[in-house]
Amino acid sequence: MRILIIGASKGIGLETTRQALAAGYDVRALARSATSINQSDAKLEKVQGNALNQQDVEAALTGIDVVIVTLGVGLGDLFKPVHLFSEATRVLIAAMKDKSVNRLICITGFGAGDSQASIAPLQRIPFKIVFGRAYDDKSRQEKLIKQSGLDWTIARPGVLLNGARTGRYKVLREPAEWRNGVIARANVADFLVKQIEDRSFIGASPVLVN
């Protein structure tokens, strides 16, 4: 299968690109800085483009079977209005329907959507102050995905750390289990790549923690 990874040039996106290639998938990596991806593989196609640009996204979807969205914002963006997640998702959903691509895997985070209610009381105020703008937009993003009619899976990792992929992490599917925690970016990527062919989490938005 051919995989499109949006936001592939750093962080979880770059690690997902590496792991998808290692698993034998053909990968098209879309990012504004795609040319900076320090990875050479015959199965990797680097595409410089903007996730907010309809033409860029439609072109990137040609011949694609599965889309993985790993967009992120910098620390400096957390204190300004954030619209990237919802606006890029709105563009993507329209393009996926136009191109008849149905499988969407997207990373948001613990605290987005209905998982916000599971934030511990003492964490809610600092979380809102620091991450509120970004997570309000991630919540809008999740709503768009859930209303899209696509075969979607939303992954909500806890606090992200660097570190090796271990494969040892918890996938908390039920709301009663949801809690914050830490998880390595490489383990988040491990979950995302597994969802390319695992259909058991379609229509689910689990929390990922160690």
Automatic annotation (TrEMBL):
Membrane-spanning parts: none
PANTHER family, per the entry: FLAVIN REDUCTASE (NADPH) (PTHR43355:SF2)
Source organism, top-level taxon: Bacteria
UniProt xrefs under SUPFAM superfamilies: NAD(P)-binding Rossmann-fold domains (SSF51735)
Protein name (record): SDR family oxidoreductase
Record organism: Rhodobacter calidifons
InterPro entries linked to this entry: NAD(P)-bd_dom, NAD(P)-bd_dom_sf, Polyketide_Oxido-like
Pfam entry (one): NAD_binding_10
UniProt domain NAD(P)-binding: residue ranges: 7-198
